[in-house]
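This week, study the protein below.
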Amino acid sequence: MTWLILGIVVAVIVVFVLAIILLYNGLVGLRNQVKNAWAQIEVQLKRRYDLIPNLVETVKSYAKHEKDVFESVTKARNLAQTTTATDAAERGKLEGQLSSAISRLLVVAEAYPDLKASKNFLSLQEELTATENRISFSRQYYNDSVLRYNNKTQMFPSVIIAGLAGFKTSSFFVVELPEQREVPKVSFS
C-alpha cells in the first residue's frame, strides 16, 4: 500500500515538473518569436533607410527650392535610423514621423512631370512601395507574435511560471497619429 501511494506521489511530481518545463519552454519559444519578428521589422526598416537618400537626391535634382522638405525627410530618417529605442511604441512613433516626411516628399514630386517620368524615380518609387508593403507585413507579424506571447504570459497557469521566471509582456508596434497610419502614397497618375 505504501509503495502504491509513493508511486502516485512520484507520478504526480513528475507530471507537475513536466508541465512546468513545457510551460517555461513555450514562453521561451514565444519570446524568441517576438524577438525574431522585431528583427524582421528592423531588416525592412533598414531597407527603407537605404532607399530614402536615393529618393531624396532624385527629387532634389528636380525640385531645388524644396529644401525644408528634404531636410525634414533626412532628419526623420536619421532620427529613426540612429534611435536606440527598443520599445515598439516609441519606435512606432519615430517610424510614423518618417512616413509623414516621405509622404510630403512624394507630394512635392507630384508637381514635377519630368520627375514622374524619370526611370530612376519610377524605380525608386516601386522599391519604396514594395518596402512599405514589407514593413506593413512585418509589423503585423510582430504584433501577432506579441499577442500570442502576451496571452501566454498573462493566462493561467503560465502566468505563474512567467511571473516566477521574469517574463514581461511586450509592447505592440503602434502608429499613434491617424495620418501616420496610412502608407505613403507613391503612385503617380
In short: The longest helix spans residues 2-62. The radius of gyration is 24 Å. The mean pLDDT is 86. The CA atoms of residues 154 and 162 lie 8 Å apart.
